[in-house]
Amino acid sequence: MKKVAAIVLAAGRSTRMGAVNKLTVPLAGRPLVAHAVAEALASTARPVVVVTGHEADAVAAAITAALPGQPVTFIHNAAYATGLASSLQAGIAALPGDMDGAIILLGDMPVISASLLGRLMDAFSKAPEHAAVVPTCGGRWGNPVLLARRLFAPVMGLAGDEGARRLLAREAVLEIAVDDPGIVRDVDTPEALADMSRDFADSAKQAVHIKNHT
């Protein structure tokens, strides 16, 4: 099995959420960002690295309180204001030297599952010649994305809000089709947060209904 880390990017300023830091907003009993971290921890990806930036102490404290005693490595990106690339670079730079790849999760995507991470890792282990493994839904690329080690150095050349997608345009990418619209769903606005909260509440009600009728 390939050695794959999980990097959760949690450094952004949430500008479209107003004065609220969306990553620490409660969602179904946990800070929003803790959902992605929890799923990373529930997978076999190790280490789990969380890159903080804006309100770093508050974000780290929220995750630690929600997931006490868990093996999470926090890395502070002091250059977070320069854009996504610097956070991705900080996460990659923090990894042990023997990693074969890394799954990049976004802290504002709370419905990503550990089982999806497992599928990405299994696919990578069976086809390590690919530079990346990307989930798709309805033909659209989604997140998280698994990057092979050979992309780590090129990632260090990115700038501003560039993610790894530009690099993938000239690489062999393995696409994994999933029936999961959550891979293209993030929380960037108060409206999106309200929609996500309703969906979590509906899922909880459905789970209780099933339990009471089985």
From TrEMBL:
Record Pfam families: NTP_transf_3 (PF12804)
Domain of life: Bacteria
GO molecular function: nucleotidyltransferase activity
Record's keyword terms, sorted: Magnesium, Nucleotidyltransferase, Transferase
Organism the protein comes from: Chelatococcus asaccharovorans
Entry keyword Magnesium: yes
PANTHER family, per database record: MOLYBDENUM COFACTOR CYTIDYLYLTRANSFERASE (PTHR43777:SF1)
Identification of the protein by name: Molybdenum cofactor cytidylyltransferase
InterPro entries, per database record: MobA-like_NTP_Trfase (IPR025877), Nucleotide-diphossugar_trans (IPR029044)
Every MobA-like NTP transferase domain range: 6-171
